[in-house]
Amino acid sequence: MDIREYVLTSLQEKHEIEKHENLDELNYVEEGYVDSFGLVQFVFDLEEQFNITFSDEEMMSKDFQFVGKLIQLIEDKLSNL
């Protein structure tokens, strides 16, 4: 499963993302795809799935909450391994 597919599948556990949605601008936290507990689990799952670690600074960044930026961050981390 590729990064984009994994992230989208994980986020759609509660409700489906509309096909017309601009993923680069979709704030999955504000839109309710994950709650505070769900976010912790989501981050843990991403780290485990891709064998990466997010820094506190990365997780605190507003960009971390946007699907497109999160996918790009994961891709960057994997390219630096």
Automatic annotation (TrEMBL):
InterPro entries: ACP-like_sf, PP-bd_ACP. Residues 1-78 form the Carrier domain. Coiled coil: none annotated. It comes from the Bacteria. It holds the Pfam family PP-binding. This is Acyl carrier protein.
